[in-house]
What does this fold into?
Amino acid sequence: MKKNRTPLSLRVPEPVCRPGDKPDFSSIDVGQAGAVARPDVTATPASMRDMAFQLIRVLDDEGRAQGPWDPKLTPDQLRKGLTDMILVRTFDDRMHRAHRQGKTSFYMKCTGEEAIACAQGQVFSREDMGFPTYRQQGLLISRGYPLAAMMNQIYSNAADPIKGRQLPIMYSDKAYGFFTISGNLGTQYPQAVGWAMASAYKGDDKIAAAWIGDGATAEGDFHNALTFAAVYRAPVVLNIVNNQWAISSFMGIAGGLETTFASKAIGYGLPSLRVDGNDFLAVWAATEWAAERARSNLGATVIELFTYRAAQHSTSDDPSRYRPGDEYDHWPLGDPIQRLKQHLIALGEWDEERHAAAEKDAVEQVRAAGKEAEAIGTIGQSRPSVKTMFEDVYKEPDWRLIRQRQEVGV
Amino acid sequence: MPSMNMIQALNSALDAKMAEDPNVLSFGEDAGYFGGVFRVTDQLQQKYGLTRSFDAPIAEGGIAAAGIGMAVYGLRPVIEMQFADYIYPAYDQIVSEAAKIRYRSGGEFTVPITIRSPYGGGIFGGQTHSQSPESLFTHIAGLKVVIPSNPYDAKGLLIASIEDDDPVVFFEPKRLYNGPFDGWHDRPVSPWAGHPLADVPEGRYAEPLGKARLMREGADVTLLAYGTMVWVSLAAAEHAGVDAEVIDLRTLVPLDIDAIVESVKKTGRCVIVHEAPRTSGFGAELSALVQEHCFHHLEAPIERVTGWDTPYPHAFEWEYFPGPKRVAEAIKRAMEG
It folds into this structure.
């Protein structure tokens, strides 16, 4: 053994910028809108590996739709996308304030990531099953889910659809294709594959979709999901929302410095797309491609949605302790609402007055829902009957639950 | 009526359910074409086709998760964990997901999955092919835990588990697959053939979850056991020459508390037997329940005969495994107490 080698040293990845530093995203190559080719939906995974290292973008800096990935949406579809995103952001801001006012114990915003769930909520049907994380509230809102029902869940009040059993924002609604959210990150990913396998097993026409964050791709569940999806050619769309931060850990702690998250799919033989997650049109087009592939019995696609978590992780988090406070202002892919607004204005289908009216309308909708939910009660003021604590553990309670309920005296 | 060993009875249960319900399917490591390392799923793929009984990647967490997703869709998957010792990578999916999905979704999403797993010791399997992890699952709200001790119950309980609308962890004592092992490891082994509980009807029948089976009626002491320890307890009663009542719990969750209480109130003495380590084992729960329900009827301290608080040892299997001698000694202590 040679003795003159440099001693080994342990590398622990660090982000480029910490609090007090000037934000620097110069290492990110965002490419050009319209520059990435669009393979046929039937393309082999091997023939499209380079897609995992490029960034599908449609909207250019002037708000024009460019290139083969333009989904050619109607002005009505575009306006719905924009107003949905405005409504999500308005709802988030209101519920964040509600936490500050002591009306709920917890909240999580998706600020900066609205395009993802608002576009995908339209591409997938509500008969498909979505296995979301806690940052896809846009799926529900874009499908017209009652805002008051979301607030009732957030307030754990007597009208909470899931009976006060889950942390705020852990929604569940089968009719809206929205699987019950788990706080254990990543578990939903291989479950979505199983659901998709069942749909294929039954000869059904429904597909599954799952979401996971960049951080949780390190979980075994992520890798189990990709293995099973590839082996059984499951009709599922596997989304990775890379918002750069997992609470305080930058994406490099999940392996994001070594390769793109999209490229993880290559080793499993799955097709992969890497998309500007702040570009409503690009998200829509890539999702449509993957959904069409799944519906054609060609199996799963992995989509990395490249974005930035503009807000804190949750109301329990303070990002100024681990990243520059103004980092989002320097994010090279801008803000999804501003970009779609600019596009609609460039098309002559929108203007500042209509935008202001849409914002006002969103505030009104959220205010009305808030009034309805708060009339039932905010956290602690109202809650489901205590006897429901013992329900739904099993289909039928066994003697333990019956006696324990008697012990509580309800 | 055909005589079946436990493997054949379990296979017959799967066959019966797959024949009548297209939503029942089976998968696991080596469980497809080959029929499983213990042959429980033998010929199911050949009979029902590739998509009804198939091989899975060596990823227990993935197997559990895929099964959960299928169950959420509306199927009734029966998944095989090749050995109970391999179940831990699936623990999060079983405990945090399968068990909790009905509750956390307000009853909207349900998980009618059956998680089968060969289990327990007595086969010289060493640390990683001998464990009895039942108490890791009985502790979890939302799971049912079933452990049969004979071919007739194995079939009836597996069918009931598949038909149950909640997740069931179904442990198969592999030492009992081929015969009613009584724990006398140095004596000739008896096969199931000819045993009354090996008379297994063809077709569908279900044994209810939550009902114990009285294996031996007796007046002097109650022996509570499940799985292989049922046969060890019967042998120990004979060895001790005591008129013991032996109860096969069959399902730990839900537990047949009435059968336990009725028997202990009658005998006034109780010996609990299981293979798993003693500390926090299911025997601790049984002991607490007997004390809570039967304190004034007890004439002696409750005895526990269990595996030791060590990992499962290969060379010392018969010192670790609660055999008839150890159980008989506990019976004697209970009688003297």
